[in-house]
Design brief:
Layout lengths: L2 E2 L8 E3 L6 H12 L5 E4 L5 H12 L3 E5 L2 E5 L10 E2 L4 H11 L6 E4 L10 H9 L3 E3 L5 E4 L7 E4 L6 H9 L7 E5 L7 H13 L4 E5 L2 E4 L8 E3 L4 H14 L2 E5 L12 H7 L3 E5 L2 E5 L8 E3 L7 H10 L3 E5 L11 H11 L3 E5 L2 E5 L8 E2 L5 H13 L4 E2 L12 H9 L1
Parallel strand pairs: 2-15, 3-14, 6-7, 10-11, 18-19, 22-23
Antiparallel strand pairs: 1-23, 3-5, 4-5, 7-9, 8-9, 11-13, 12-13, 15-17, 16-17, 19-21, 20-21
Helix pairs in contact: 1-2, 1-3, 1-6, 3-5, 4-5, 5-6, 7-11, 9-11
The structure holds shikimate-3-phosphate and phosphoenolpyruvate (PEP).
Length: about 425
């Protein structure tokens, strides 16, 4: 049954506390599993992607339980091979857990949602083969047997996803001779996510060198157990801030970090360029809409997660918005370029794919429709933003938001009023 999305009868105004970052939560879980003792994570995300990560690490022998206001993660003496690890549609699970599985005492098998087998995996699995693992399959489902002897270098083409590099780097310190990862392909997307990986490793005492733009060297050694506070998810926060921009309202997100490697942090600059007012405080961010938004040219290579929300803003702005640098999002939860083109056209937006992005003509006459989510949380966010201005828009599967924010429908309804 499609769900009607709220229309804004008045400017959207309020404050919204968003849950923890998916990217940080799932990295912190993996690093805690690899650490030299028990760790505690506070502010961790609770959603389908983090549940899948908890279950995956549990299957490898990691103990993870709620303790007070945090998650206590205790690594096993040795990881055990897992009969079945369900990756769902989570990129962080399918790309970060297989490297951990090569440290186990036996083989592990990986499965996922039907569409998960369309997501690129080949370069990561090749990287694991270069480290000595035996891997059967090149996409989900696949099976991994740990190496008899570990090698210390992997050269892979990571242009389809930064997560291949991140996944390998996460285990580097635990290999007998450490690990050198080289990216050999074209443009590497989502570089801030790789920096998030290296920063989180360094925070845990791991030495990571980057001799050049496409090479990372992780020294062998211990990964220190930590007590970590996870930042709010700034990409999910952007959807709420965008609601202010498209309705002339004012929305504040508290606990916005002063400095963050989350790509969602870049949203503030983007929405400002489109004409909204942005107030960056030491511990919050506020976006206010006012005059009509204007279309912009924007390279989202560093922050491709933001493409659906920027596409929604472009559709509701005046003039043309051209998003570039995101060819690889054809391999995200769904082919996002095709999905965005199709769904925007369904309500009357002139949208067309380019070689590496989208061209969106704002100011078209828009009509309501039932939009499709393609199991993609961020396609629901697109529909929710469009519905604020186009009365009657519905979404076929609002449950897709459970991937990173199960509470999105209630939080959205609460804010829109
Ligand atoms: O490492 C991460 O946490 C992520 C990296 C990015 O993946 P890609 O490089 O595949 O875009 C991003 O889009 C994804 O949502 C999360
Ligand atoms: C691309 C995304 O997710 P994943 O971690 O599954 O790659 C996303 O959340 O936009």
């Amino acid at each position: 049954m499609p769900t009607q999305l709220p229309h804004a009868e008045a400017p959207v105004t309020g404050e919204i506390v968003v849950p923890g970052s998916k990217s940080e939560t799932n990295r912190a879980l993996v690093l805690a599993a690899l650490a030299d003792g028990p760790s505690v994570l506070r502010g961790a995300l609770k959603s389908r992607d983090s549940d899948l990560m908890v279950a995956a690490l549990g299957a490898l022998g990691v103990s993870i339980r709620q303790s007070g206001d945090g998650l206590r993660v205790a690594p096993p003496v040795r990881f055990k091979g897992a009969a079945n690890i369900d990756c769902g549609l989570a990129g962080t699970v399918m790309r970060f857990v297989p490297p951990v599985a090569i440290l186990a005492d036996g083989p592990s098998s990986f499965t996922g949602d039907p569409h998960a087998s369309e997501r690129p995996m080949g370069p990561l699995l090749d990287g694991l083969r270069q480290l000595g693992a035996l891997v059967r399959g090149d996409r989900l489902p696949f099976r991994i047997s740990p190496p008899a002897q570990y090698h210390a270098t992997a050269s892979i083409d990571s242009s389809a996803s930064s997560q291949f590099v991140s996944g390998l780097l996460l285990i580097g310190a635990r290999l007998p001779e450490g690990l050198t990862v080289r990216h050999t392909g074209g443009r590497l997307p989502s570089r801030p996510h790789i920096e998030m990986t290296t920063q989180m490793l360094r925070e845990r005492g791991v030495s990571v060198a980057q001799p050049d733009d496409t090479t990372w060297r992780v020294a062998p050694g211990r990964i220190a157990a930590t007590d970590t506070l996870i930042e709010p998810d700034l990409t999910n926060a952007s959807v709420f801030l965008a609601a202010a921009a498209v309705t002339g309202g004012t929305v504040t997100v508290p606990a916005w970090p002063r400095r963050s490697l989350q790509p969602g942090a870049l949203f503030l600059d983007i929405v400002e360029r489109m004409g909204a007012d942005v107030d960056r405080k030491a511990d919050s961010a506020t976006v206010s809409g006012g005059a009509a938004l204007r279309g912009i040219d924007v390279d989202l290579s560093a922050a491709s997660e933001l493409t659906p929300v920027v596409a929604a803003l472009g559709a509701l702005a005046e003039g043309t918005t051209t998003i570039s640098g995101v060819a690889h999002i054809r391999g995200h939860e769904t082919d996002r370029l095709a999905a965005l083109e199709t769904e925007l056209r369904r309500i009357g937006v002139e949208a067309s794919q380019t070689a590496d992005g989208l061209r969106i003509v704002g100011g078209c006459d828009l009509r309501p429709a039932v939009l499709h989510a393609y199991a993609d949380h961020r396609m629901v966010h697109l529909a929710a933003l469009l519905a604020l201005r186009v009365n009657g828009i519905e979404i076929d599967d609002i449950g897709a938001v459970s991937k990173t924010m199960p509470d999105f429908p209630a939080a959205w309804a609460g804010l829109i009023g």
